[in-house]
TrEMBL record:
Keyword Transmembrane: no
Stretches the record annotates as Disordered: 1-28
Organism: Pseudonocardia kunmingensis
Pathway membership, UniProt: Cell wall biogenesis; cell wall polysaccharide biosynthesis
Galactofuranosyltransferase-2 C-terminal domain boundaries: 459-635
Top-level taxonomic group: Bacteria
Protein name: Galactofuranosylgalactofuranosylrhamnosyl-N-acetylglucosaminyl-diphospho-decaprenol beta-1,5/1,6-galactofuranosyltransferase
The keyword Glycosyltransferase appears for this protein: yes
Similarity comment: Belongs to the glycosyltransferase 2 family.
SUPFAM superfamilies hit by this protein: Nucleotide-diphospho-sugar transferases (SSF53448)
Keyword annotations from UniProtKB, A to Z: Glycosyltransferase, Transferase
């Protein structure tokens, strides 16, 4: 294991495994493993039907094999089981895929395919009778999938038993597979990080795709302090590079891995796969992302998708875009899946899959592979801390002609976004970094952005979210201070925002053990229908606040009903936190609301007056802020 932050000697790291040379003897193209055929997840904590479905009879599913009883049918027409041919035809020059397996027993193995409308067809078939470790080879052309469709296996038996194992989907290698480094950024999620590393250490096939695993520890509770760490470090050996540094946020942690992956001469650079510390890792993602990235026609960012950790059968989103002038991210590309139940069926009782190809505009850094060629061309991420860093990098790559592909079937499980409360210190970075993103990658319409800021502030104030309003105003003020606000990597801003929020009691989540007093004051009051006119409703609520009137003196509001137009009808609202782990108490405070309103008016006038010039300053400083030299300064390193 490489441990010291100053140790950057690449000679100490093993080279990437030369698993797939460009050509074999005689000039025949080598085969590149594109994905493994898996019938069961990495743990029983995730649904096996995401990998394979027993559609008829009984079968025993294991990680790399399935055994069918007589009269059974197993299909891999599932999220992890499909070969998503439409993405391969669109973004690569690979003309066919070969499926190999080992079979024992009697039955049939078919290679199936679908079109854009989920209509299936049989591509190839192999009948087996009393097979004994018999090789199976099926070939499918990747030639009718421009707009959508995929391939999968259908395995059936009639009177006999059949075992199929060691399924491999391979394609012709179009070039040598680049070396790939993994960068894991962690901050006081020790057990989660160790679990992620253990999953990688336990999968030799996934490890073969990795040159170095950079673990960048920014927490006060170090990963290396746990007894488990030594065993994992021994298993990964010289592949593991452990670094401790001060907390510079996600961009700071991920960029440290990228920093080491792209040091030295260009032929020594590695692609870098960013990985969150708190994911439930499917190690197969390393095989699929690296294979796809090694096959694209041009350097392409290849992102893994996010499945919800709390609800593991659900896909967060399959393709997304952002609207920085509205400070909105994670918007669904038309035709994409969002919060989709992957174990369900559509209206035709067919499996829920991303059948039609949808092209994303960026990919979250819960798992995302960035080629070294992209880094050399566009530089490093901005030191944005926590929010918008991945989005900004994706849009910067697009501006330079590098696409991003969010690859179905390559996913990890990550904490559900819908179960995170919006009234947290992170909201500062959502607003400030969103404004920076708008300055860099939009027309920066002052009227449009100002209207959005005014809308957010007005709703927060009548909703008695005074700490959140102060957080937003601080974000706008710091944006207006210019690019110098990023000079320390935002460590100072983080401490200051937490101090500001501590002055507002409704920002604190209380455990249910503190739910004391008269139970009648906690009667649940559900929200009525959405207002027909938000403007008129807001004016009415604001009048109530100014005159001291309220529809409800007190009551409990479920998290799903905590809309501003409902909470604003209370004098005191006990609101369930979105995490469902406790509650917050919002109490009307006319004086505080008026003070924040005056401050908001001043800040928005300043934004209108100074915004265009400030945006130009961010654009001018873009190259310096994203440079290797700037990151070396932030890391305190002589590069």
């Amino acid at each position: 294991m490489l441990r010291t932050p100053d140790s950057t000697d690449r000679a100490q790291n093993p080279p990437a495994a030369q698993e797939h040379p460009q050509a074999q003897d005689g000039g025949t193209p080598a085969r590149l493993l594109a994905q493994r055929g898996l019938f069961f997840g990495p743990t029983a904590l995730v649904p096996e039907d995401l990998y394979s479905a027993v559609e008829k009879g009984t079968a025993r599913r294991e990680r790399d094999r399935v055994t069918l009883a007589p009269g059974a049918r197993v299909s891999t027409n599932s999220y992890f089981g499909r070969f998503h041919a439409t993405y391969w035809q669109r973004w690569t020059d690979v003309g066919e895929v070969e499926v190999s397996a080992v079979a024992a027993g009697t039955g049939r193995v078919r290679l199936m395919a679908s079109d854009t409308n989920k209509v299936w067809r049989i591509v190839a078939s192999c009948d087996l009778r009393d097979a004994d470790a018999t090789p199976v080879r099926l070939v499918g052309a990747i030639d009718r999938f421009v707009d959508g469709g995929g391939m999968w296996l259908e395995i059936t038996t009639e009177t006999g038993e059949l075992t199929v194992s060691d399924v491999r989907w391979t394609v012709a290698a179009t070039r040598p597979v680049p070396a790939t480094d993994v960068a894991i950024c962690t901050h006081n999620r020790v057990d989660d990080c160790l679990n992620t590393l253990q999953a990688l250490a336990d999968d030799p096939g996934a490890q073969e795709r990795v040159r170095t695993v950079h673990v960048v520890d920014q927490g006060s509770d170090p990963v290396e302090s746990r007894e488990r760490f030594s065993g994992i470090a021994a298993a990964l050996g010289e592949r593991l590079h452990y670094v401790r540094q001060r907390n510079l946020g996600g961009a700071g942690g991920f960029t440290r891995g990228m920093f080491h992956a792209t040091e030295g001469a260009p032929d020594e650079h590695a692609d870098v796969l960013f990985m969150d510390d708190d994911v439930l890792l499917e190690p197969e993602i390393l095989v699929r992302l690296t294979a796809f990235a090694a096959s694209t026609r041009q350097p392409t960012i290849v992102g893994g998708q996010m499945l919800n950790l709390l609800h593991p059968g659900h896909l967060h989103i399959s393709a997304e875009y952002a609207d920085p002038e509205q400070l909105q991210m994670g918007l669904k590309v038309p035709g994409a899946l969002r919060e989709a139940y992957l174990l369900g069926e559509d209206e035709r009782r067919l499996p829920v899959n991303q059948e039609r190809r949808v092209d994303t505009e960026y990919n979250g850094w819960w798992s995302c592979l960035i080629p070294a060629a992209v880094v050399r061309e566009i530089g490093y991420p901005l030191p944005l801390f926590l929010q918008w860093d991945d989005i900004e990098y994706g849009y910067r790559a697009r501006a330079h002609g590098f696409p991003t592909v969010s690859l179905p079937g390559a996913g990890v499980w990550h904490a559900d976004f819908g179960w995170k409360d919006g009234d947290e210190w992170q909201r500062y970075f959502t607003i400030r970094n969103g404004l920076i993103m708008a300055a860099l990658h939009s027309g920066f319409s002052i009227p449009r952005i100002t209207r959005r800021l005014g809308q957010l502030l007005s709703q927060q104030l009548v909703g008695m979210q005074y700490g959140l309003s102060a957080t937003l105003l601080k974000a706008v003020e710091d944006f207006l201070n210019g690019p110098e606000t990023l000079w320390d990597g935002s460590a100072g801003a983080l401490a200051e925002v937490r101090k500001i929020r501590a002055e507002y009691p409704e920002t604190v989540m209380h455990p249910m053990s503190e739910a004391t007093g008269d139970f009648r004051e906690r009667q649940v009051v559900r929200a009525a229908n959405e207002p027909g006119s938000e403007t008129l409703t807001w004016l009415k609520r604001a009048a109530y606040h100014l005159t001291g009137r309220a529809v409800h003196r007190t009551g409990s509001v479920p998290a799903g009903d905590a809309h501003w137009w409902h909470v604003s009808t209370f004098e005191r609202a006990i609101v369930t936190d979105m995490s469902e782990q406790g509650f917050r108490v919002r109490t009307r405070d006319k004086q505080t609301a008026l003070e924040l309103t005056r401050r908001a008016a001043h800040t928005l006038r300043r934004f209108v007056r100074e915004g265009p010039a400030v945006a130009a300053r961010y654009r001018a400083e873009m190259g310096r802020l994203s440079s290797r030299e700037n990151w070396a300064r932030l890391y305190g390193m002589d590069d």
